[in-house]
């Protein structure tokens, strides 16, 4: 049976992004590429992990991860990733503002969901065709799915960085039990941890 997975890059003190996300600062103040440096500088050392991140049959993300806007859509905005996003699969974006689906090169189509996290998950499961569904972020979206008991496997990629403030993983999630899976791996730039999320 397919799983709902989630890969998150976090600081050692648990932040997925800093404050004040903008067009010029997509990860917020003072973050830059510090949480994902391992993907950029050591892709071969983490090839299996990176492949796992992009292997899902469909993805779900929050509005903040898709772009810096919060109000009505700037219809020219097509995401941070250029003409060919890295997903190569359907992506469902949680939002309060309707927008027509946005097909991109390479097989990615962004579909905008205004009915909430469970509706987005139902659509993503159908689109994934039996493959896993990945909750791609950001922090608020991940925390909502964790709080609702809808994530089966959580993969945490911890960078040796302390941000001090920002958008924190596990905020508002409540009492949650995580069972470690597999071996801890990584390099000086990151530690990879995988957990099964135990529901109930």
Name a few traits of the molecule.
29% strand, two-stranded antiparallel ribbon, 5 helices, alpha/beta, 10-stranded mixed β-sheet, 12 strands, 200 residues
Task: Characterize the structure shown.
- The chain is an alpha/beta fold.
- The protein has five helices and twelve strands.
- The strands form two sheets. Strands 1, 3, 4, 5, 6, 7, 8, 10, 11 and 12 form a ten-stranded mixed beta sheet that branches. The chain has a two-stranded antiparallel ribbon with strand order 2-9.
- Strand 3, helix 3 (63-66) and strand 4 form a beta-alpha-beta unit.
- The two termini are 19 Å apart.
Topology, pairings included?
Blueprint: E1 4-11, E2 15-17, H1 37-41, H2 47-53, E3 58-62, H3 63-66, E4 90-94, E5 102-103, E6 109-113, H4 117-128, E7 133-137, H5 139-147, E8 153-159, E9 167-168, E10 177-180, E11 185-187, E12 190-198
Quick structural overview:
By secondary structure, this protein is of the alpha/beta class. The protein is 18% helix and 29% strand. The mean pLDDT is 94.
Shape: globular
| Percent in strands | 25-35%
Query: Roughly how many Å apart are the termini?
Result: 19 Å
In quaternary terms, these chains amount to single chain
Discrete helix count: 5
Instruction: Give the low-pLDDT segments.
Output: none
> If you average the pLDDT, what whole number results?
94
Rg, Å, rounded: 16 Å
Largest sheet: 10 strands, mixed
- Listing every helix as H and every strand as E from the N terminus to the C terminus, the arrangement reads EEHHEHEEEHEHEEEEE
Structural class: alpha/beta
Helix content: 10-25%
- What is the number of beta strands? 12
């Amino acid at each position: 049976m397919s799983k709902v997975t989630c890969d998150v890059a976090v600081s050692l003190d648990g932040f997925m992004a800093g404050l004040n996300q903008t067009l010029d600062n997509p990860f917020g103040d003072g973050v830059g590429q510090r949480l994902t440096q391992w993907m950029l500088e050591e892709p071969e050392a983490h090839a299996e992990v990176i492949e796992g991140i992009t292997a899902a049959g469909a993805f779900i993300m929050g509005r903040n991860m898709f772009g810096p806007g919060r109000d009505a859509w700037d219809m020219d905005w097509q995401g941070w990733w250029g003409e060919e996003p890295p997903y190569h699969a359907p992506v469902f974006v949680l939002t309060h503002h309707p927008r027509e689906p946005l097909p991109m090169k390479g097989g990615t189509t962004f579909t905008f969901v205004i009915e909430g996290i469970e509706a987005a998950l139902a659509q993503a499961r159908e689109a994934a065709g039996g493959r896993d569904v990945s909750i791609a972020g950001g922090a608020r979206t991940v925390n909502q799915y964790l709080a609702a008991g809808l994530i089966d496997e959580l993969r945490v990629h911890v960078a040796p960085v302390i941000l001090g403030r920002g958008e924190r993983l596990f905020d508002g999630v409540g009492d949650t039990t995580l069972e470690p899976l597999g071996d801890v791996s990584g390099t000086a730039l990151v530690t990879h941890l995988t957990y099964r999320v135990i529901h109930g």
